[in-house]
Amino acid sequence: MTDFMVQALGVRKSYGGVDVLKGVDLNVKRGEVTCLIGPSGSGKSTLLRCINHLEQHDAGELRVDGQLVGYEARDGKLYERSNKAICAERARIGMVFQRFNLFQHLSVLDNVTIGQIKVRGIGEKDAQQRARELLARVGLANKEANYPSQLSGGQQQRVAIARALAMDPKLMLFDEPTSALDPELVGEVLDVMKDLAHSGMTMVVVTHEMGFAREVADTAYFLDQGIIEESGDPKAMLTNPQSSRLQGFLSKVL
Amino acid sequence: MSANGGDAMKVVPVRHYGRWVGGVTVLVALAMVIHTLFSKVPSGIVVCHTSDGVRHCAQSVRWRFSWNIVGQYFTTWEMFHGLLVTLELTVLAMAIGITLGVIIAIMRMSPSRLLSAPAWTYTWFFRGTPVYVQLIFWFNIAALYYTFSLGVPFTHLSVLTFHSNSVFVPFTAAVVAFGLNEAAYMSEIARAGLLAVDEGQIEAASAIGMTRAQTLRLVILPQAMRVIIPPTGNEVISMLKTTSLASAVGVIELLGAAQNIYAANYQVMPLLIVASLWYLIVTTILSIGQFYLERHFAKGATRTPPPTPIARIKADVRGIAAKMRSRRPEVVR
Prior knowledge:
The complex is a heterodimer of chains A (254) and B (333). With 254 residues, chain A is α/β, with parallel strands linked by helices.
């Protein structure tokens, strides 16, 4: 078992000739919170999506929990993993999206139980009990019968976090979890994330919330145009940026 | 609120003269329709009787629309049997149409050209030729294929062999023709529904480890249903009426039953009315079913489900009552 939950080495990704990631190195220790910051189009969301194989990286080495993402190394060759194996990998990596993506046709409770029942094969009673615990943890114990469209953005995002946690993940990925929220709703989601960070969950968070990065993250990475410009302790990075790009970025967002 | 120091002012609503003229015209037309529906005409039969040694003769009258004959045939076993065959044709053809249509829609959306191109061609062919032509084609399929065999392709090895003429009896020919034709339309409806589901739903399903098949079954299809149901309801109603074409190849469904009866008694119009009334009854029931089905699948898509007809009538009554109250003279101060 390695100390690292996520290891990226020279990860590259391009879409139709446009290089989005141009060789990214990243290391996330177990139990650590890592924030990815940077301007839009810098490749931070793409990197996140490569980690749980929603996107397939073109080159470089990407490992989660010591295992190569999407491939298996055997006899000096890389074998592409079957869909089933990839699904099993993903099931242990929670992901929270910018636009929540709750299942619109299911109640809040069913949103949190469906993965447990259909993917993990847990019985309905146990799944519901676990779902209720998680909904209570994100402060939505009284909303289990509602449908997503009846909830505010902040409430929907907290349900989405509960849905991801229900899969008992070893790693949680957050893709700009507060960017689609009204300003007054951002706090309630960040509070849940802070609570999660303090419980020892390994988290990779793409965010524009510099306050959160400074306060909660153990490490921050600043991406710009597909490369990591600067990384390290978020407090030091944000108060005393070294690269001119980060200085320019911070002068715009702070 | 007043313009002249606290005195009450009368509120004069806008007069909609155009609406009044239109309304009166519609009422007159409606009265004419009802009048002619229930009018009587001379029957051509002279009835005479003698009373007190005087002979009286008069021509009898009958309903113009022969309602008595309509009533007489409305609930005959022939019509019931025809209705049953119509319902069977509709259900079987729609079952084939929906199943095949969804499969074709999924094939059409496949990244593989080998799957998407045939799907496109299928829709192109079956939508591009009249359903009536297809019906006659399947009815006469024996002219092309005397037998059908189940076996190894391109060899003479076969497990089962059917004679076309024993399989493609009128009823089967109609089910196959309507079913295959319907699949072309249903595939487009299903495709629209599948495309309407947000990409993010698929990503979220993938992210919790669902396989593609699970994502399709548990996440995409249930949400696509909301978009698929209303046009599918229309297709069912349309199919119910299209099945009347089957009478042309000898299926005794509703229209066929009516035709059989009027071939014997020459009461063409009354029997067409009988068949039409049955079609109307079934389409009405189907429309009601469609409403509740749509309501069920709208779960989660709308914050408040649309009211049921009964709830709507209640609301209308409340609305009218409220209007009546507000008509009472009010004093504006």
